[in-house]
Design brief:
Elements: H1 8-15, E1 17-20, E2 31-33, E3 36-38, H2 41-52, E4 58-63, E5 67-76, E6 101-107, E7 118-121, H3 142-150, E8 155-157, H4 165-174, E9 184-185, E10 189-191, E11 194-196, E12 201-202, E13 208-209, E14 211-214, E15 220-226, H5 232-249, E16 254-259, H6 267-273, E17 279-283
Parallel strand pairs: 15-16, 16-17
Antiparallel strand pairs: 1-6, 2-3, 4-5, 5-6, 5-7, 7-8, 9-14, 10-11, 12-13, 14-15
């Protein structure tokens, strides 16, 4: 629940545990309501799963956006309904604290990213089908997880994305040389009585490219920005812009797809990018640092 409790995954790492919430013992056994008792099927499922976990089992930490943290080996059995040791401290809004059922684990640091600020983006096709709080993984082995997690091409930042694709395109428009040596903003000028702008170019079909640049050979370059791992549909979208630019302004452009997913791209996407006009694919990484003012 990294989105609800930012920093929770770092706490798991530091405290060598995985946690489940649902409040102190007895809280979710059923909620008395007018006309009867409301059942909470996800808690019942999670409670039963927790009882099945034994020392020596492995737990994979699931994060939002098809990412995982590390693989942990369970070192101590949890008695699901008798222990409450909140990892998220109590607050005026939650006097019991949160994430209080701890499963003690030893996180695997051998098959994992080098930095604690990095996590693993599951590649396309690596499906698990998990739903709910705690689930048994039936279709994947520990070895398969280790191989995916040990591959640096799957490593991404835990927090390191531009908030919006427009912010990424703004950055590229201001600093195009960071993307490729010699790239520069396309000058705003008229071509066939139509104005070509540095940033978003709208076409007659109402589609709109993100950034239009020129390379060192004065060839137009269309840059498409995506937050997540690129897909075949993203390649088609970029090629559509290349085609529209040729049709409407008689300009032969090439394309660059910039994304914030894992460096390793699915084979289907790579194959789709190769035919002419070929689309180059780049991963971006966002690195923010702070220093006290003086």
């Amino acid at each position: 629940m990294e989105n609800d409790n930012p920093g929770l995954w770092k706490l798991w790492l530091r405290c060598q545990c995985a946690t489940v919430g649902y409040g102190p013992p007895g809280t979710w056994e059923g909620c008395k309501m007018e006309g009867g008792t409301r059942k909470w099927p996800d808690w019942n499922k999670a409670k039963n799963a927790l009882k099945e976990i034994e020392p020596g089992d492995f737990i994979v930490a699931a994060l939002p956006e098809r990412r995982i943290g590390r693989l942990g080996k369970v070192v101590e059995k949890l008695v699901a309904d008798e222990e409450w040791n909140p990892l998220v401290p109590p607050s005026p809004d939650d006097e019991d604290g949160g994430m209080g059922r701890r499963i003690l684990v030893r996180w695997d640091l051998e098959h994992s990213p080098d930095s604690l600020d990095q996590v693993v983006q599951l590649p396309e096709g690596f499906d698990i089908g998990w739903r709910g709080t705690v689930n048994r993984v039936w279709d994947r082995s520990v070895k398969e997880f280790q191989e995916v997690m040990a591959n640096p091409a799957n490593w991404v930042g835990l927090v390191g994305h531009f908030g919006y694709e427009s912010a990424l395109s703004d950055y590229i428009a201001l600093y195009p040389h960071r993307l490729e040596d010699g790239l520069r903003p396309h000058p705003s000028k008229k071509v066939r009585d139509k104005v070509i702008r540095v940033r978003e170019k709208s076409f007659a079909d109402r589609s709109r490219l993100d950034v239009l640049l020129l390379d060192k050979d004065d060839k137009p370059v269309i840059v498409e920005c995506k937050q997540d791992s690129p897909t075949v549909e993203d390649i088609r979208q970029l090629r559509h812009y290349i085609g529209r630019l040729k049709k409407e302004l008689d300009m032969n452009a090439r394309g660059i797809l910039v994304h914030g997913g894992a460096r390793k791209v699915h084979s289907k996407t790579w194959r789709a990018s190769r035919p002419s006009p070929r689309v180059a694919i780049f991963q971006y990484k966002l690195d923010v640092d702070f220093a006290p003012s003086c």
